[in-house]
Design a protein that fits this description.
The chain is built from four helices and six strands. Helix content is 30%, strand content 25%. It has one domain: Nonribosomal peptide synthetase, condensation domain (Chloramphenicol Acetyltransferase, 2-Layer Sandwich). The relative contact order is 0.18. The protein is α/β, with parallel strands linked by helices. The protein is globular. It has a six-stranded mixed beta sheet, covered by helices on one side.
């Protein structure tokens, strides 16, 4: 929803990380080292909220069947080696441990122009069971602070919209 608002497009694409820890390999949970991969999500936001969310959920579940496929190999096979396929990413993960008391709130913890990954804008979400922390990171040499703050505001409004829609069970359009 945020990308749709920022780009004025109903059909958006972004990358997200998958842990790779749920592969059907004996002992995968004990492997030391990274197994992460980047998956690509394309979301068409035209239509009723419930239908868009259900289709997005189905697609997400289907994507995990491809988490062992190298995005770099796909790029190479398409003749796109070195090309940037998308400039935004989202990471959602469980907190390893939390020292703060949870209040069941969603908090946008920071908007930072110190992103060290290759994406112009990244959203990192950490879940600890009682609270959700969100960070918006951006490359300050590509994305200005005003745009980053606008993206953070739109993100908060989008989450509020989704939560209100879920509570009211109304059929609303996402865009």
């Amino acid at each position: 929803m945020v990308l749709s608002q920022l780009t004025n497009k109903q059909d958006v694409c972004f990358g997200y990380l998958a842990s790779g820890r749920d592969l059907e390999v004996d002992g995968v949970e004990e492997v030391i080292g990274p197994l992460i991969t980047t998956l690509v999500s394309r979301v068409d936001l035209s239509g009723a909220t419930a239908k868009v969310l259900e289709k997005t959920r189905r697609n997400l579940l289907n994507h995990f069947g491809f988490q062992h496929v190298s995005l770099a190999k796909i790029q190479d096979g398409l003749g796109l080696r070195g090309e940037q396929l998308f400039n935004t990413s989202m990471t959602i993960r469980q907190a390893i441990h939390s020292t703060r008391a949870g209040d069941g709130q969603l908090r946008l913890e920071s908007v930072s122009g110190n992103s060290t990954n290759e994406y112009n804008i990244g959203v990192a979400v950490e879940l600890d069971g009682t609270a959700t922390d969100v960070q918006l990171l951006y490359q300050s040499d590509v994305v200005g602070e005003v745009l980053a703050l606008e993206a953070a505001e739109i993100f908060q409004m989008a989450i509020g919209f989704l939560m209100d829609s879920a509570l009211s069970n109304e059929e609303k359009s996402l865009v």
